[in-house]
Amino acid sequence: MPRLTIDGKPIEVPAGTNIIEAARLLGIEVPHYCYHPGLSIAGQCRLCMVDLDNAPRPTIACNTQAADGMVVMTDTERVRETRRSIMEFHLINHPLDCPVCDQAGECWLQIYYMKHGLYDPRMVDDKVHKPKAVPLGPHVMLDAERCILCSRCVRFCDEITGTGELGIFHRGDHSEIGLFPGADLTNKYSGNVVDICPVGALTDRDFRFQVRVWYLDTARSICQGCARGCNIEVHTSRRRPHHAQGRRVARLKPRYHAEVNRWWICDEGRYGFAFVDDASRLTFPVRREGQAVHELLWDEAIPAVADALRRHQPDEIALLASPKMANEDLWAVRALAERLGTARVAFRVPPAAGGDQDDLLIRADKNPNTRGAELLGLDGDAAAIMADLRAGAIKCLWIFGHDVLHAAWPPAEAFEALTRAQTLIFSGTNASSVSALAHLVLPAAAWVEREGTVTNFEGRVQRFRRALDPLGAALPEHELIGRVLATLGAPVSATRAEHWFRALAAAVPAFAGMTYASIGDTGQMVSP
Ligand code: SF4
Ligand code: SF4
């Protein structure tokens, strides 16, 4: 544990810590472009120069490890002058197209120019021109003129995905980032290069020109794309985004978590929010009688669901919950099953196609809460429920979200089973072939429109927050189940997600002692 002083402040850091990270621990920012804690050291941008008391010249902090007795100065006149010169060098050929650049407002050229530059430009020659708006792959656009050749994107593709699509080509001030011949930036994590590009050279094709970043609101959340549960931020726009009509989620960005996803997320998760404002969203409750479809108010729909459930014997009713539902919803499903007196509850519907998995983040299980559903005791036999429905032994089925006609079951048999139901209730976010058959359709809020918790494959319970209002009349599933329970006469005190979580933590040993506060922003492991 070397002990050193930085700007006169003493600190002890683990061996191997570089000066940028040691200074960060003291709250001192050493400006840098090419250094990234998740990548190898390149020492390329030269901006992180600091003074060491025994060195004749300023030294780069990224490639200097803290040593015992070291005296570091990050703010001497010599360091300030060096930074100014390096900023001027980085901006010599920069096009300064901030007014039309998506990075404006979160660009490290802008930020560092204001903090460490503020020189009068001396460049009188024509700037070197390079290709602009070059698609590198389905998600990423390159503006080579804006690139400062920090090589973060190259190192990401070499070291993190191992796909090596990018390189730096040509020499001197004609150097530019590009794809190797025949390569496309199609790896499953390509969007991360946009996040780590410190400038506006790599922009997100989905987000480009949608909205200025200073109009974005942020909510801390958890990706629901697979069982990893990557920590993310949901960025929403109070202003209508420019092109995509009605789209409210502007983008998803990774949120650092040392043990879950570090700095990264996959493209599948990053771009997996189109359903939220899709035209297929269910926005009001519906009753279907033969060919007739009636729109309902909740005050009509909830009693209709309760009446339908009351009409059947307990052993004629089954609930098909989903591992896409939050813990709070699943606990409400359990409470409903107990109230109805049915033991026919399941959540596992096999997908028609197997999911891909890798060693970085992506999990084969494309559900965020399979582990939670297991721990909450909902692991019944869904295939047997469908068989009993087809045989007429089950007469009332409530399906939560699943498109069972596109599962790994023979579609003709599944269709026959659904059409035999005397009462088919469907709740979910979007219309599907199941909602088209259901007698009662209940619109559910999407995960970005509500709060809750999910339990990832390792058993980490993580909170996601509400980023948007639910579309139309949609409600979180725990709320609509709670209303049905209340109409059935059950003593339900839970109205918010947090109440349902409190109830489940009091009843299920794996969650004992957990609260929303104790889960916080980093999550909490379930008890073994
Ligand atoms: S494109 Fe961005 S990340 Fe890649 S080298 Fe240029 S500035 Fe760095
Ligand atoms: S790895 Fe899974 S949880 Fe992470 S971003 Fe991708 S889909 Fe989402």
What does this structure look like?
24% of the residues lie in helices and 18% in strands. It is of the alpha+beta class. The chain folds into three domains: 3-91, Roll (Ubiquitin-like (UB roll)); 108-277, Alpha-Beta Plaits (2-Layer Sandwich), CATH 3.30.70.20; 286-525, Rossmann fold. The strands form six sheets. A seven-stranded mixed β-sheet has the order 15-14-20-19-18-16-17, with helices on both faces. The chain has a five-stranded mixed β-sheet with strand order 2-1-5-3-4, sandwiched between helices. The radius of gyration is 28 Å and the shape is elongated. Residues 147-153, 177, 197, 199, 201-202 line the site of one iron/sulfur cluster.
**What is the name of the CATH architecture of the largest domain?**
3-Layer(aba) Sandwich
- What radius of gyration results from the CA coordinates? 28 Å
Residue share in β-strands: 15-25%
Question: Residue share in helices?
Answer: 10-25%
Shape: elongated
- Summarize model confidence as the mean pLDDT: 95
Count of all domains: 3
> Helix/strand/pairing class, anyone?
alpha+beta
Low-confidence stretches: none
- The tally of beta strands, per DSSP, is 23
Bound molecules: iron/sulfur cluster
- The CATH class of the largest domain is identified as Alpha Beta
Question: What is the distance, rounded to the nearest whole angstrom, between the alpha carbons of the first and last residues?
Answer: 34 Å
Number of helices: 14
Describe the sheet with the most strands.
7 strands, mixed
Strand order of the largest sheet: 15-14-20-19-18-16-17
CATH topology of the largest domain: Rossmann fold
